[in-house]
Amino acid sequence: MDGSGATVQTAVVLAAGRGTRLRSLTASVPKPLLKVAGRPCIAWILGDLASAGIRRAVVVVGYRAEMLEEYLAANLPPGVSAICVRQEIPNGTGSAVRLAQPHVLDAPFLITFGDILIHPTSYANAVRVFTQSGCDLLMAVNWVDDPCAGAAIYMDADGWVTQVVEKPAPGTSSTHWNHAGLVVAKPVLFDYLERLSPSARGEYELTAAYGPMVQDGLRLMGMPVCGYWGDVGTPADLDRMSAILRAERPEESR
């Protein structure tokens, strides 16, 4: 099977990082458990994934893994099961996704990050566009002044990805589209993750698989996010996203 035509029911949630820019906030708590608008970040994410039809979460944990494992054992949305996989060596997002492969099965799956909050509409849109387009991989993108901190995504007028540049030098990109940390992919992605070489930081990056996929003729599509998007990587980010969620989703905030 190549995963085409199957319903997307499994999500891989990357939640192993420490969150060094959050300083003392993550000294004893993993970043996905930090409170945003009164609820753990990962609680927002899992609830929104459930609303998009996800029924199984493979959560890749690392820093303070036992705390996340204990939380997930007692705090899952109705109808959603979860399994935790430990990333013992923090060597990149590509390696983290590969650890989830035995639990993904041979079907399309979603990837998201445990420290990125995305409007729930974007999850549902990603699954829908992936299914309708017939692409091999769909990535959500967000508009930034300069994508130098992430991955620069180049697309044609129809949204097909033509080039991906991982962490370009500041001021060198002619695109404003940035990789937003939400992906829906066929299992063929694992073939390319297996071939990754380490980056300059010594890590195996998920986005580094995209260029070879495009070069080999696979069809990758970019989809702009809908509504809010935020990486809760700093104390200021936490405050900003808490304010957004309390304004847009007051009934779910605490």
List keywords for this structure.
seven-stranded mixed β-sheet, Spore Coat Polysaccharide Biosynthesis Protein SpsA, Chain A, 8 helices, 26% strand, alpha/beta, two-stranded antiparallel sheet, single chain, 254 residues, disordered N terminus
What does this 3D model show about the protein?
The protein is an alpha/beta fold. It has a domain at 10-135 and 181-214 and 229-242: Spore Coat Polysaccharide Biosynthesis Protein SpsA, Chain A, CATH 3.90.550. The protein is 28% helix and 26% strand. The chain has 8 helices and 13 strands. The chain has helices spanning 41-51, 65-74, 93-99, 101-104, 120-133, 188-193, 210-215, 235-248, and strands at 10-15, 35-36, 39-40, 56-61, 81-86, 109-113, 116-118, 137-143, 151-155, 161-166, 177-185, 220-224, 229-231. It has a 7-stranded mixed beta sheet, sandwiched between helices. Strands 2-3 form a two-stranded antiparallel ribbon. Strands 7-13 form a two-stranded antiparallel sheet. The longest helix is centred in the middle third of the chain and has 14 residues, at 120-133. The protein is globular, with a radius of gyration of 17 Å. It starts with 9 loop residues before the first strand and ends in a 6-residue tail after the last helix. Residues 1-5 have low confidence and may be disordered.
